[in-house]
Design brief:
The protein has about 500 residues and is an alpha+beta fold. It contains 18 helices and 18 strands. Helix 2 packs across helix 5 and helix 5 crosses helix 10. InterPro entries: aa-tRNA-synth_II (IPR006195), aa-tRNA-synth_II/BPL/LPL (IPR045864), Anticodon-bd (IPR004154), Anticodon-bd_dom_sf (IPR036621), His-tRNA-ligase (IPR015807), HisRS-like_core (IPR041715), HisRS/HisZ (IPR004516), HisRS_anticodon (IPR033656).
């Protein structure tokens, strides 16, 4: 076999992305602010693995007609089926059930991590994405749901999203189930149609009332020609549900509907008493949430400002997270009622929103100072490494050049491409005198573009100077501080 035929093709799997330094830092900046809010509310971190036994995850994914479709699964060597987690809630339910006797209830916890969906990728739709969840397990009162809504609102504002640019929308699955009972969709024989209704209504913000009307009926074909099967309701049932979505009221209802309305009233009263007005937390009959395991209040964090989509159209940004009450999820393992509520933030989607608002990536990251290599003997290399460590120990990002040091010009080109603010140089003459040269790369680039005569050069801050080794850290710090002051002045 030839060497050419053996060469592998480097390719990224569909629906997955590589993340670069800027995005990774932006995520860290954002999640730190979210974590601060969760901690302030008294929540503690916990971490569960990416892989769970398939039966522990359950069959709760939205938009799926086949059991366990949408989940990446494989068999272990003991023939047990295992899956990559598709959310962070089902693994938490397993964790709580498995450690139930050691956990203090109510159990208030948060966690961030990647989840995986084996779904058709599309623009902005990936098979791996990060979520950041908070949950309270063991709290039966809807006051816990009200607190979740308040925490979502506080999180939006901690991220710099101003009031008027977001709203926490709240509904109740008991209300929705009561509406479906009133539409003659109750009973075990209508389980699949009810799931179809939930999936259809959950698309309201994406497809509008006409799109939902099609999904409640026979189905909808998208622009690519793909057909989504509908819930198969008759015209009277469709109009009944559309009227509920538009008005928030129904002409006939039962006990389940009344119970759900009472719970929504409690949440609204608690939010108002705590100072959260309708501009921040609002009752909205169109909120459904696609996951099947919700049993009570459900809520979504929606960003209400306009953005331009890939077609050049102005659209509302929409949902960046949500959640609700899932009283039956832990009970699957325990055989006894275990109430729980929580919400999840879509980290990647929220990060996109914050970039649109100019609220992310504002923390300055200065490229490393570069210590160049002029000589490869043991004494010289030891000094270069010592300079690098002294700068690092002083909190200054630094690196020693690790490429082919024999071509010094390549080191300066590397520093330019790297964006290094300062370069350290020590040849044989400087080493003999315990001296180093420090070169201000930022000022040097500016001077080379602006200087017209020798007098201007002499009056400018020197771009390069020789100093004693013992003064290295102090002089580099002074140079970096001067560069930072110049940047602030130019911004101002």
């Amino acid at each position: 076999m030839s060497a050419k035929s053996e060469k592998m093709k480097a390719r990224l799997p569909r629906g997955f992305v590589d993340r670069e330094a800027a995005d990774i830092r932006a995520v860290h900046e954002m999640t730190a602010k979210i974590r601060e809010v969760y901690e302030r509310y008294g929540f503690d971190p916990v971490e569960t693995p990416l892989i769970e036994y398939t039966d522990a995850l359950g069959k709760f994914l939205p938009d799926q007609d086949r059991p366990n479709a949408g989940v990446f699964s494989f068999q272990d060597d003991d023939e047990q089926w295992m899956s990559l987690r598709y959310d962070l809630t089902a693994p938490l339910a397993r964790h709580v059930a498995e450690n139930f006797n050691e956990i203090q209830l109510p159990y208030r916890t948060y966690r961030a991590g990647y989840v995986f969906r084996n779904e058709k990728p599309g623009p902005g739709r990936f098979r791996q994405f990060m979520q950041f969840d908070a949950d309270t397990v063991g709290a039966p009162s809807v006051s816990a749901d009200a607190e979740m809504c308040m925490m979502m609102a506080d999180t939006m504002e901690a991220l710099g999203i101003r009031r008027g640019d977001y709203v926490i929308r709240v509904n109740n699955r008991k209300v929705v189930d009561g509406v479906m009972e009133a539409a003659d969709l109750g009973g075990d024989e209508n389980v699949e149609r009810r799931l179809g209704v939930l999936r259809a209504i959950d698309k309201l913000d994406k497809f509008g009332f006409e799109g939902v009307r099609l999904l409640l009926g026979q189905g909808r074909k998208d622009e690519s020609g793909d057909f989504t099967k509908g819930a198969g309701l008759n015209p009277d049932q469709i109009e009944f549900l559309i009227n509920y979505l538009q008005s928030g009221n129904v002409s006939r209802s039962g006990d389940l509907y009344a119970q759900g309305i009472a719970e929504l009233s409690t949440i609204e009263n608690m939010a108002r008493a705590a100072g959260y007005g309708e501009d921040r937390i609002r009752i909205d009959p169109s909120v459904i949430r696609g996951l099947e395991y919700y049993t009570g209040p459900v809520f979504e964090a929606e960003l209400t400002f306009d953005v331009t989509n890939e077609k050049g159209e102005k659209v509302v940004f929409g949902s960046v997270g949500g959640g609700g009450r899932y009283d039956g999820l832990v009970s699957r393992f325990r055989g006894q009622p275990v109430p729980a509520t929580g919400f999840s933030i879509g980290v990647s989607r929220l990060m996109t929103a914050l970039k649109n608002l100019g609220k992310l990536g504002t923390e300055e990251v200065v490229a490393p100072v570069l210590v160049t290599v002029m000589d490869g003997d043991t004494d010289a290399m030891g000094r270069y490494q010592r300079f690098t460590q002294e700068l690092r120990n002083a909190g200054i990002r630094s690196e020693m050049y690790q490429g082919n040091w024999k071509k010094f010009g390549n080191q300066l080109k590397y520093a330019d491409r790297r964006g290094s603010p300062v370069v350290i140089i020590q040849g044989g003459d400087e080493r003999a005198n315990d001296e180093v040269q420090i070169k201000d790369m930022i000022e040097g680039a500016r001077l080379s573009a602006e200087i017209e005569d020798n007098q201007t050069w002499r009056e400018s801050r020197p771009a390069q100077k020789v100093i004693k080794e013992t003064d290295l850290v102090a002089e580099v710090r002074n140079m970096l501080d001067a560069q930072a002051a110049d940047r602030m002045q130019s911004k101002g």
